Amino acid sequence: MEKEREKRYRQKIDGLIDRLEFIEENFPASAEELKENRIIRKSLYKEFQEIAEIISDIAAMVTKDNKKTVEDDYSNIEKLCKALKLDKTLCSTLKRANGLRNVLIHEYNGINDDLAYESISEILPYLKLFANKIIEWLEKNF
User: Fold this and answer.
1) Which of 42, 59, 87, 138 would you call most buried, defined as having the most Cβ atoms within 10 angstroms of its Cβ?
2) Average of pLDDT values for 28-45?
3) What is each CA distance from 10 to 72, 131, 136, in whole angstroms?
4) d(CA 28, CA 74)
5) Buried b vs exposed e over 20-42: b needs ≥16 C-beta within 10 Å?
6) What is the mean pLDDT of residues 55-80?
7) Active-site residue 19, yes or no?
């Protein structure tokens, strides 16, 4: 079972890294460029959405593996942060990523592309940091 669980974590991490690299490689130089190119805009939003979903999946997995009750995404992220001893800034940024995912999916009051561009550019470095932290955690625990 443990080998299968490790394999599942690695699949999630690989998916996370793949999507982070895609966003980095295709992130436009400005919000204007983002707004002008629908294909890039939609694909970046989709990749970001999937990143947030992967983080939520990892949070639920870690929560379950620590014999805690799996709850909503925000609660699970909080439990993940405690289990991995992540700092408050990283933890709040993971929650922010989940919130942005909800906006991008449900288009609450429409999507403000300028704000989405700014948010993704601010969140991205923390997502890379999270990827490194979860890899370190995996190496220690499996």
Assistant:
1) 59
2) 97
3) 23, 11, 12
4) 29
5) bebbeeeebeebeebeeeeeebe
6) 98
7) no
If we measure between CA atoms, which residue out of 39, 3, 5, 20 comes closest to residue 126? Answer: 20
Say if residues 60 and 54 touch (Cβ distance below 8 Å): no
- Residue 74 in contact with residue 95, Cβ under 8 Å? yes
- 110 pLDDT tier (thresholds 50, 70, 90): confident
Residue tagged active-site, from 5, 19, 38, 101: 101
Active site residue 101: yes
Looking at 8, 38, 41, 106, which residue is catalytic?
Answer: 106
pTM beyond 0.70: the answer is yes
The CATH superfamily label for domain 2-141 reads bsu32300-like (1.20.120.580)
